[in-house]
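Two folds, back to back.
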Amino acid sequence: MACQAMGLGAAAAIVYAGRRMHFHAIGLPLEGPADLDALLETCIPEADALGTWEGSEHLTWTDASGAGLAIRLREGGVDCITPFFLPADVSALRVGPSRWHVDPGCIDCSGVDVDVSPEGDTITRSSVQLTHPRVWRATLEERPTYALRLAAFAHELAFFEDEAALLASRSDEEPSFAPNAFLPLGMFKGPEAPLSDAAIAMFNGTVDAVETRTNAGGGSFLRLRVTSMAGALDVVASPEQVPSDVLPGQLAHVVGWLVGEPALPRPEAPRKKTGLLSRFFG
């Protein structure tokens, strides 16, 4: 999504126009920019302040449902907002070396390209958008492997009773994928693609669990746990995307945006450098 330093209302307008479905997936059914404006006016005072990195104040708002917003402020205005879903028991993937993936339009929408290694051997590579890229960059550059806590925000969802039904759903012109396939669709867009496009994956897998969650504002959303060849992944979606008769054991076909953060202690904000004179006169 396009981001730049601005007043609250203008930021809401740009974010809303970018990826409205991501907010819907965690029970924030925004009907227009004014709704996001009102949401931020509620969330910012309740958010945890993480500190300042490179001139941007970083805040995290979350609630008991696991829904959250990573918020960056600069010069008194909202600079960027990233929705996420990170409850205590969210899925985590074992990943290998990271390559920093800079979003061309907004550094705070950046992420990592990582090797996905659920059993120690790399099975694929995928882009993942980070909640607070500036916060994590230095730490991840020093880590050869780590666990990445993340969820997929559903763009497309379909459910099938078994593998035969999954295969039958594809036309002769469409490629068929294994019932546990994982394909990092966004990486085919190239290294210059924004993370809202690059961090898109397609995967098939078994539905292990499905539940309805309610956020602090009373909005409902669905949380599913789907196991593919990459491992177990949490998927969040609006109620309209998930049929009421979905049950564990069925197969799911998911296209979603991957966003998360490392399962590591959060780094402290850099201290401001002060000279001797500023200690007495600053």
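---
second:
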Amino acid sequence: AYDIYVFDYEGYLYSQPLGFMLADYAGYPGEGQAHYWPLTVDPLAVTSDFVGDGKSDPVKFDVAGTVWWLNSRTSSWDSAWLGDGSYDYVPRSDFDGDRVTDPAKFDASTGIVSYIKSTDGTWEEKFLGVDTYTYVSGADFDGDLETDPAKLLPDGSIWYLESSSGTWVGEWLGAESFEYVSASDFDGDGKDDMAKFIATPGVLWYLQSSTGTWMGVFLGSDTYDYVSGSDFDGDGVTDPAKYYESSGVVWWLESTTGTWDAAWLGAGTFAFIGGNDFDGDGKTDPAKFDASTGVLSWLKSSTGTWNSVYMGSDTYDVVN
């Protein structure tokens, strides 16, 4: 048996037949380390990966303005200080396209999103405007593997700053009452699709980037929370999912089979954590966080067993 590596010095990591190794010549993070991505791992789907190994790192953001992540390579805590002041932590961002999460923040008073580039450790920022909007994080609309900062306006339109061209692009999501769904790749073309969830009658709508047409999926008319950005079957296509807090069960509609599957997360009071691949097999691992114990637990899709980590007893937010 042989381990086969395909090197892509241009930095384009898709379309590799067996897998690929991304060499880290800048020595950040970890001098002399190289990152191997097996075929089953979609770089766009792995969230909060601060070390570039294709695995999600448990993350917390504390009141002092520091973001902490549990390094999946070393099993030790690493951190970055984002500064004083009033701002929101921005999760799931890779602004420089190196498949490593960039710690980021958004200051609504200035309309600026700032981030620490994982490639060289320097700060960069982008001005989004000072009009009224909601910042939208973690979206790659143009398919270049770099996060495109986006904003959702009160009129139901979403605008994003395309990293490949540096220009603003807008789409109108509709005038009806809806819940904006964090952008995900529902059609599997490598670009995130704008989406919305209408609670009554329980339909998820997404705008296919591959065709420019709207598609709808009926999730049910009962009471549940919509779960976004999850690929449970590992085919590179987002699976619409819903979570029932009363029963502790998460259901997802597998894109490979068109059938519903489910996982029970247990009884008790906890927060559902979605959209993370902690074991690096290319499939979302259903997870939960118990604030009373400070423990984050996830169901490994690779083995079907539970794993957990203690996040601490201090005051913080667990970041998806």
